[in-house]
Amino acid sequence: MARYFLKTQLIAMRTKKLLFIALTILCFTFSANAQRGVRIGYIDMEYILENVPEYREASTQLDGKAQRWKNDIDKMMNEVEQMNINLSSERVLLTAELVEEREEDIKIKEDEMLKYQQDRFGPNGDLYIQRRQLVQPIQDQVFNIVQEIAESKKYDFIFDKSADIVMLFSAERHDISDIVLRSITRTAKRTQANSKKEKKEVQQKEDLSLEEDQAVTEREEAVEAKKDERELMMAERKRVRDSVRAVKKAEYDARRQALLDERQRKKDSIAEVRANKNNGDTNEEENEGEDNNGNGTNK
């Protein structure tokens, strides 16, 4: 009996020890997760697409094409409406067979318009297909970049803000859209890079951590801001310099024109004096000639 009691106590002590160890491990795991926290990020696909130059250009072309399709539909609609107006005004003059024929023509025209509209703007229309073809490569690229960022930066969840998931609130520090956008830009630069130096610079930026990447981005944005400010300052200086030059040139042109006018007036005055003098000499010669003629007659 004592042996059984002792064995029972040993089993109980062993069980308590195992429970204590399990609870210790569980608490340690929970504490580690609590210290690390769940890391969540999100992207805005619409923002990313709007800032990809290739997508913007292709989207603009597609919007222009869609507008032309809409104009075609409006034109067909106006034709159908005009056919209905004509039929309404001429119905009393037409036989039943002609009325039926006109109505059939209108029905055919309406069906053509609806088919054209469905082919262009329907669920499986040209606009939907071409838009999907335009977006799909960028979406695939974004998906791959998000996977890489999630693995390298230890994210637990990354959502798409522009999708159907409702996000009532999210701090901007969780937005990694700019990181994805920069990765797309760097991928394009890496593709366009020719020298080893350029490829190395792109690779160095890709190897940065999230905090380092944000710091580099802030520095780059600060440099760009200073560059823009400097360009604006230079443009303002050039504007002022050009304005001063324009004023000086106008003053110079005015003085030059005044001198030319004064010179011309002097020339005209001299020419007028000479002309008057020539006229006076001519009159004197004529008078002398008349006197000589008169004297000769009297003799």
Summarize, please.
The protein has 299 residues and is mainly α. It has helices at residues 2-36, 45-50, 53-90, 96-121, 126-152, 177-192, 196-206, 210-298, and strands at residues 40-43, 157-160. It has a two-stranded parallel sheet with strand order 1-2.
What does this structure look like?
The structure is a single chain. The chain has 299 residues and is an all-alpha fold. Among the domains are: 36 residues; 165 residues, no CATH class. 83% of the residues lie in helices and 3% in strands. It contains 8 helices and 2 strands; from the N terminus they run αβααααβααα. The chain has a two-stranded parallel ribbon. Helix 5 crosses helix 6. The longest helix is centred in the last third of the chain and has 89 residues. The N terminus is likely disordered.
